[in-house]
Amino acid sequence: MKRGVFIYSVLLFLMIILSGCGEEQEEINEEKDEVLTVYTTLFVWEDIATQIGGEHVQVKNIVPPGSDAHSFEPTAQMMIDIAEADAFIYTGQGMEGFADAVEKAVSNENTKMIQVTEGMQLNESDAHGHEDHEGHHHDVDPHVWLDPVLMVEAVETISAAFSDLLPEHQHTFLENKNRIVADIEELHEQFTEVVNEAERKTIVVSHRAYGYWEERYGIEQLALTGLDPAYEPSQKEIEEMIARIKNEKIPYILVESNISAKVADVIQSETGVERLPIHNLETVTEEEQKKGYMELMEENIAHVQQALE
Description:
Largest sheet: 4 strands, parallel
Protein name: Metal ABC transporter substrate-binding protein
Organism: Aliibacillus thermotolerans
InterPro entries: AdhesinB, Bact_metal-bind_prot9, Lipoprotein_PsaA-like, ZnuA-like
Keywords: Signal, Transport
Structural class: alpha/beta
Number of domains: 2
Strand content: 5-15%
Order of helices and strands: HEHEHEHEHHEHEHEHEHH
CATH class of the largest domain: Alpha Beta
Distance between the termini: 98 Å
Strand order of the largest sheet: 2-1-3-4
Oligomer: single chain
CATH architecture of the largest domain: 3-Layer(aba) Sandwich
CATH superfamily of the largest domain: Nitrogenase molybdenum iron protein domain
Family: Belongs to the bacterial solute-binding protein 9 family.
Shape: globular
Number of helices: 11
């Protein structure tokens, strides 16, 4: 009898231990499951969201490297995946032509729509290329990621959204946000110093995407195409541009890898200017994607500094 009681006691003890381990394992699994699934439209938002979220956020960018968010069309499966996700981060202001369709697709779901430009003070678009080749209108300039000050606002918006969705990790999101903001503010200081110390204030660019630099730092962009790069200048505009480059002895033209170089080729052959690369970060190559937002912006500042010499 005593032996039976002993065996029963041992079995009961083992059952309690195993039960406790099971509950503990279940708690661990639940903690592992606390990961947000987030879809983005631009490389910039993917990079920032990944840095803010860390291990608590899985970020997927739906626009592949080399593709244009203006003309990109998500597949039916992508729309389903976004509707099943926790959040969708996009620029807004007509930057992504498919954003309205996504909003309709997730209207009855729990997907949080995070428009990074919401509440921002944005520049109005210029007259050139105001309407793009597909009829989309840009009443404001959507290239906010090129302005470090506005990028700070975007980082704060994304961080706040993640904290709302996963409040138990808001401290981590806040720490990551503060680190990113400090880096971006340093970019702003570098840019300000570069322009203040430069004698020249005009840069020639292949795409009128740098209006926020004009507003923030006092740079004038002499652009070969409009806000929509599909816009091409007239022969008269090209001649006026050539004359100004020669008169002001502008030595460089800043050219983006994803914009047609046809007009730039004409300008270069007529003026003898040298080319420097610049990243609009709207569309990136796989190599540029690996560098990340901060490194590409540092390269931009370095090339602008050279162009202003």
